[in-house]
Specification:
With 360 residues, this protein is α/β, with parallel strands linked by helices. Helix content is 28%, strand content 13%. The protein is globular.
Length: 360
């Protein structure tokens, strides 16, 4: 099976080996001392205006009942904790569409005021209403997963016209970016699915035309709560997709890059489990719109991985319950792991020191 390069320059934001810079910070975890997280995720709301067929957060999204959204008071409480912890960066994403909460604007500005770096993942539907807030973000990822309105509609379960609205919103952000020195990196996010794999090059071309800085392409995977087989790829589909990623790379220039991320997957695009335990639960967390604190963004809504809430997380972080969770997680039952590089590095570098990292 063909092996393709994931990027043309290994020094990029999508290279999981960047976790190596945190080895010394995480070193104490092996002795049962858990430092405060450098990076976390915040979910501003559990509502979504889309119904993506492979959403990994369906267990968290409200169906009209149990609506939750971060209030100004909750945001102040969260940011004060993060400032105390000296957290460096936050990804605003969610078990819902984050820009459906009008308080997300306040959240962005509040984090920025404390010198906490910000990334945003959105479906892009309300992007045009937050253009001036984006200047405080380091990057913005727009989940699109298609190059045509027909495919987009099938995947997202939205009207055909929605696709063009998203593209126009990205153009608006890109136009503002040209006029502003304070602007985020804009990424066109493309999860490969049997319905869309033939559109990889067209999506790359479109991403460049509308002013994106990067396109992030990777295989999708079934969420933790189902095994319905949305992402059962044939060998031919995988080969076709890889060829289209290679073709897309010819579009690269100084302002546009193509990333075909494969290092978290096997050759048949199954989630790669190259570690025994999940140590990522000691390095990061996510805060849900109801104030609950979970430890894995890939398993939003899983009660096993709920640690605490924002009123007690300052004392619960690193406590007995936190330490005991390691033995309750069977990584073989996990979906695609966002934190594969964290777990690989923890086991091979921190625990076994295979890189002899004290020797430069």
């Amino acid at each position: 099976m063909k092996i393709i390069s994931e990027w043309t320059n290994k020094y990029n934001a999508f290279n999981g080996l960047k976790c190596l810079v945190h080895v010394k910070y995480w070193d104490s975890i092996k002795d049962g001392i858990i430092p405060y997280p450098i990076f976390i995720s915040i979910d501003p709301i559990n509502l979504c205006n889309f119904d993506c067929r492979f959403c990994n957060a369906k267990m968290s999204i409200s169906k009209g009942k149990n609506k939750h959204a971060l209030t100004i008071e909750m945001i102040d409480k969260i940011v004060n904790i993060l400032e105390k912890w000296k957290t460096k960066a936050v990804c605003i994403a969610g078990g819902g569409e984050p820009l459906l909460n009008p308080n997300t604007s306040y959240l962005i500005k509040k984090l920025h005021s404390k010198n906490i770096k910000i990334g945003l993942i959105t479906n892009g539907y309300r992007l045009d209403q937050f253009v001036y807030d984006l200047k405080y973000c380091e990057w913005v990822g727009i989940s699109i997963d298609a190059a045509k309105n027909t495919t987009y509609s099938k995947i997202k379960n939205v009207p055909l016209s929605t696709f063009q609205k998203i593209i126009d919103n990205i153009k608006t952000v890109s136009a503002h970016k040209i006029c502003s020195c304070d602007a985020p990196e804009i990424t066109y996010k493309f999860l490969i699915h049997p319905l869309n794999y033939r559109e990889i090059f067209d999506a790359s071309y479109l991403a460049k035309q509308i002013g994106c800085n990067t396109i992030h392409i990777r295989p999708g995977g079934d969420p933790w709560f189902t095994k319905k087989g949305e992402f059962n790829f044939t060998k031919k589909q995988i080969e076709t997709a890889k060829n289209l990623i290679e073709k897309s790379r010819k579009l690269e220039d100084e302002s546009f890059k193509v990333y075909g991320i494969m290092h978290k997957f096997t050759n048949t695009w199954e989630p790669r489990k190259s570690f025994v335990n999940c140590y990522a639960i000691y390095t990061t967390m996510y805060i849900a719109p109801n104030g609950k604190v979970g430890l894995c963004c890939d398993r939003r809504g899983d009660p096993i991985l709920e640690l605490s809430d924002i009123d007690s997380i300052d004392t619960d972080w690193g406590g007995p319950k936190h330490l005991e969770l390691l033995n309750k997680i069977d990584v073989n039952k996990c979906p695609r792991c966002t934190y594969t590089p964290v777990n690989e590095i923890f086991e091979n570098v921190i625990l076994k020191d295979k890189m002899l990292y004290d020797f430069i």
